[in-house]
Structures are given as structure tokens and as C-alpha cells.
UniProtKB/TrEMBL annotation:
It catalyses: ITP + H2O = IMP + diphosphate + H(+); dITP + H2O = dIMP + diphosphate + H(+); XTP + H2O = XMP + diphosphate + H(+). It comes from the Bacteria. Its EC number is 3.6.1.66. One of its GO terms (cellular component) is cytosol. Substrate binds at S14, N15, N16, P17, G18, K19, A76, F161, G162, F163, D164, K184, H189, R190. This is dITP/XTP pyrophosphatase. Its cofactor is Mg(2+). Pyrophosphatase that catalyzes the hydrolysis of nucleoside triphosphates to their monophosphate derivatives, with a high preference for the non-canonical purine nucleotides XTP (xanthosine triphosphate), dITP (deoxyinosine triphosphate) and ITP. Seems to function as a house-cleaning enzyme that removes non-canonical purine nucleotides from the nucleotide pool, thus preventing their incorporation into DNA/RNA and avoiding chromosomal lesions. Belongs to the HAM1 NTPase family.
Amino acid sequence: MADATLPRRLVLASNNPGKLAELQAMFAPLGLELVTQGSLGIPEAPEPHHTFIENALAKARHAAAASGLPALADDAGLCVAAFGGRPGVDTAHYCTQFGYPKSDANNVRALLEQMRDIDDRRAAMVSTLVAVRHPEDPEPLVASGRVEGLIAREPVGHGGFGFDPVMFIPAFGCTFAQLPTEVKNAHSHRGRAARAMLALMQERGWPAG
């Protein structure tokens, strides 16, 4: 049963259909409906910061201010050990620095090209979720999730989005793109962050007060 103190609608500060699908499935059990900022005519916020939490907070405040509703933002990315944690916050635009048009496929292509001769394949997918009740919320809720894995030598699988086809998870013996949606959602970086966020919302009686 949904907690009556929770908002029925949250503005998701993203227009990424993959993020919307994953997060909507995770928040649905509490009766929360996520609506993208684009569906409300809200433009994307600038993301000038160097950390996931700073960008997520900026996006959440922007969406709340423009919509008048509580907002949820997710800033996530791939952190490759051999690259000192990069591309990090620049994950979505990674391929553009190598002359490719922005797309998931080109991001994967560029990453594999840059790692062609690198033996250290360790990487982590990181997600930071920030929720605000209103634009000036002095106590935003913050939750993070992290999953470690290895960058595969070639894409495998057709599920998910982003770098899922090359993010090999040793515990499952396959890439994120090979996992059934419900399994990926239960174990992904975003899934872990979402569960932590839901627990925080319930604990704080959010967004009351």
C-alpha cells in the first residue's frame, strides 16, 4: 500500500526513456507516478559540475522550480579505473570528444576503442538520486548506488541502455544487457539508489513539512 504522506506525482528531471522506465518500475509499488520534465515543457538544466551529486541537485531544483511539484533527479555514469574514474559525469557525451555524434552506440564504440590495449578493465556504474520537495528545500534527500564490474571486449546482449552491453557483472557471469529487466533493476546501480531513496522517503514522511 502506498504511504499516504508521499506525493502521487514526481517530476523526473530527465527525458531519458531508459531512466524513466527503470525508475517508474521501481517507484510504482509506492503509488508514485514519475512524469518527465519534457512532458511538462521544462527544458533540461545545465550540468556544469564535476560530481554526480552536484549535477543531480541542480537538476532537481530546476525541475521543481519550473513545475511547482516535488522533483527527482538522477545523475549517473560510468567510472573506469584505468581512466581515473572518467568519463564520470561526462558519460552521456563521452563519444563526442572523439568526433562521434552523441548516441549510446557511439559511446560504446568510443569506449572500446579507447580501451583496446588496456588490460585493466575494472569499472563501476554509479547513480546518485536527489529528491527535493520544492526548489529551496534545505534538506534534499540523497541516495547513491554503485555496481562494480568489468568492461567487456565487445557488446553482448540487447537489453538496457547506455553502456549496459559492455558492463560485465562477474556475479552474474554476463553483461547488464543480458539480464532480464526485473533482475537488472533489482541489482543495478540505479536500482540500489532507488531502494535507498524510497527508504529515505518513507523514513522522513516525505514531502510533508
